[in-house]
Amino acid sequence: MRMEELVQETLQHVFGDESIVFDKSRFAGGLTNYNYIMTIKGMEYVIRRPGGMTEQIIDRNIERVNNHIASEFGVNSDCVYFDEQSGIKISVYIKNSKNMAIADPSSPQNLESVSCTLKRIHSFPINFPNRFDWLAELSKYELIIQQLHGSFFFDYTTLKDQLVTFVQETNKNTMLVPSHNDTVPENFIIDDTGRTYLVDWEYSGMNDPCWDVAAYILESKLSSEAIHHLVQNYFGHTLTPMEELKIKNFMMAQDLLWTAWALIRHYNGDDFLEYCCLRYERLRKNIKLMTKSPQCSLASMVMI
User: Can you tell me the distance from the alpha carbon of 178 to that of 8, in angstroms, rounded to the nearest whole number?
Assistant: First the structure.
């Protein structure tokens, strides 16, 4: 059965109405998955159609647990249906809302909201049952690429080994807290009252909190001023040398990890090659930059 047909059948079953047609006219974005807004029986919902290869990339059983924990503590949208087998999810649409990418990810007010949301998540009194280990994820992605008979960039192994050695030698005092691990501005949703949510918990797990901070800086392409505002709000002080180095390391690790993720999507027939090349070129640039000028600014590492 095609995924569109499975989504439609699921909607009909969940809402008890065989006349429901899966309507994709209101696209709500997504990279790993594709999300659509539908009005059903007078209520608006976000319908998740899983993207290609996600059954191999994502552990949906873990995601369901973490998604529920995030909802329990009020930072996630309410989920009304979750299928671990197919990855189809139905959530209540947050009314009068827009994602942070549209609302301006670098405004002082929104940076404050993001910082508060991250601190709240990183302080959950319940731990997630899994750990997000970027090297383990990378190995999994590399294996999938090989199974798809895909190839890597000519200097992939050299750059990867250089980065892994550097990170392992310099990352000290890591700590594990509940983390989202995919803090792109599109995943932060702000409603008309100013309340901020964080959605899409597929990659969530226990991790060092600097990973989430690094991801927001990188994915939002924050300026020096915006980065300063974010870290002041999150940490409450100017970054220590160790905190700054950890964020730099994680920014490079993320570009490598999501390069491999994008290669999976590319070799599966999705249009992700440009995205993949942009991330990999930035990784190349930043490894050279960190080798020559380890005191470089965070903002200089954001630019492609």
Answer: 34
